[in-house]
Prior knowledge:
Strand order of the largest sheet: 2-4-5-7-6
Amino acid sequence: MIDTKRSIKKVRLTAVFAIVVFFILILPTVFSFINFFIMHELGIRPVAGHHKRTSLFMLVIISLSIGAAFTFVFSYMFIKPIRTLEKAADKIAEGDYSVRVSLNGMEEFKQLGERFNHMAEELGSVEMLKSDFVNNFSHEFKTPIVSLRGFAKMLKNDDLTAEEKSEYLNIIIDESERLAELSSSILNLSRLEQQTILTDKTRFNVSEQIRLVIAMLDSKWHTKNIDFTFEDKDIFINANREMLEQVWINLIDNAIKFSGEKGKVAIQIDENEAEVSVKVKNYGAYITPDKSPHIFEKFYQGDFSRTTKGNGLGLSIVKEIMELHKGKVKLLESGENGTVFEVVLSA
């Protein structure tokens, strides 16, 4: 249906252009005939010899001049929207994404203007995200590097106690691990963004995979004495096993991270004929409405004090993996009753 409408619009635009060109070509001839008719009606007859040729020559000049004037007007009216678009495109090329156009005339020109404005708006958003990414990336890398340099310099002091040396070394180790994790996350995210086709799909028990991830993160949730529950049943799914494991690691690790001491984390898995749904819930600090639209953005952290460990890439990676699987990840709810993330995949 959409292709048919587009074909009709193309035919209409082509027809209008052909009509304009036709009129441009025929106008001088029409004015020549009009001049001959007027002269005939007024009883003006060209005289013989030199005067006859001069009269005919003047008639042709007048007809061509009038035809050229009308041709210029028609051409200008038809080409003006294209020139407007051309100037706007030059500004876009120079990096001015605030430019917008308003094309009058045919419906096709108006739609072209709307699409151009939409393109400019999207390019502006991409540029803004790129700038934010560079700024956040620089901040996330600079902080641990400064910390590493500072504590390494302090270790050169001869008057440090054994306890102080041990403390500084532990900080250096932690910051080094943070840098390694950040580098790994960025490389992983970059690989996912460049991947367009999902490969290495197998059928496996996703419930068993989630149980293994919970066991893998045992030290983290046991340290905080978190009460972990998993309402599971054996459910099989066709997916990329490695990628989905990363989804569960990121979501469950976040749930543990934002749960308080002796908190609760609950995971529920369900299926129907078409979909498999996995819900991860924690009862810690909830996400406020002003922050929820940004949680899947790169480097975004709701904890602006940055007291919580993390680099703000976990949910971005989850989102990319879900898009490759043609699935969905969403913040189902967040409030005093807990925060729930839901993953939905084709069964």
